[in-house]
């Protein structure tokens, strides 16, 4: 299991836009470096990426939820 | 010499003590948001207090130096790395040509500062090297750093001081709960007594809507006195006929979510300013991370001036 951690505070969004599909869903196979969401702070959106390949097990933060540096956003089971 | 920026960080900008004397034409004073931390970084590398530093918000840059350099990182607690090796914040660091500086995750606060001996040597615009990004003015081409930028560093102006570390007792704290001293006014008469009581008693929580322009706090609504809409003012009770905004003034558009205007704020507008943060506490506001619980405490002008004198004592302890 690998945790995807937010390096910065802000609002976590799972979609690139309100009427767009989520970057990734629970159960999806994801690649290393794949974007799983964005965090907005100071009117800037920073992409949150998985460092490992595997299956996205679960999100620990809701869409539009607040995150702080070090907070786990999602968990990936490797392989 | 220069720093070569490999990754820019979230919003890394060149800042100094600020650009004074142009607020009347809408150009804010700008400058490092946490002036004390920036000043301490300069002190460690033998600069003057007026030299420019790099201000990093949340995510710092990754850069290499093209020559030997002396740097110091101060401000929000963060892991500083030189060629991947963790180094100490609040102390003088020596870099060899080609060394790479990078940063880990913040463990509190919002901003940290990188000073380099000789100072960041961008041109002075209207008497300051500070970046005013909204106005595309100052700093490096009037903007925050980008990957591929070359940040020029000036020639050392003097020798290195004896002090190579800021004593812990002098370092600012990065608390999750802060009390910010304010002076009511100029438009506090527009709030009802209950409205003012709410401002002064509520636990305000800093939202993520916080940057160099202003910081927005979540909490209860404030109640305004009824009024006849004056000619030239907006229809909301929080609107006034346009007036100048003081640095640190607190406006409450619609009575919801007070905003503390900070160093890159506009110089005027049509919202009633119910209070102003005293100058000694502007750095404390700057250090607050989203989620920080904040209480506003009213003080008199005498108390505000005494607090300013106390802050000057800390600076003297660093600069001698």
UniProtKB/TrEMBL annotation, chain A:
Annotated metabolic or biological route of this protein: Lipid metabolism; fatty acid biosynthesis
Region (Disordered): 1-27
CDD domains: biotinyl_domain
Molecular functions (GO terms): acetyl-CoA carboxylase activity
UniProt KW keywords: Biotin, Fatty acid biosynthesis, Fatty acid metabolism, Lipid biosynthesis, Lipid metabolism
Record keyword Lipid biosynthesis present: yes
Protein name: Biotin carboxyl carrier protein of acetyl-CoA carboxylase
TrEMBL record, chain B:
SMART domains attached to this UniProt entry: AHS2
Pfam families: CT_A_B (PF02626)
Gene3D superfamilies assigned: Cyclophilin-like
Keywords annotated in UniProt: ATP-binding, Hydrolase, Nucleotide-binding
Keyword Nucleotide-binding assigned: yes
Domain Carboxyltransferase: 24-312
Keyword Kinase: no
SUPFAM superfamilies: Cyclophilin-like
GO molecular function: ATP binding; hydrolase activity
Cleaved signal peptide residues: none
Family annotation (PANTHER family): 5-OXOPROLINASE SUBUNIT C
Protein name: Allophanate hydrolase
Species this protein is from: Arthrobacter pityocampae
Source organism phylogeny: Bacteria, Bacillati, Actinomycetota, Actinomycetes, Micrococcales
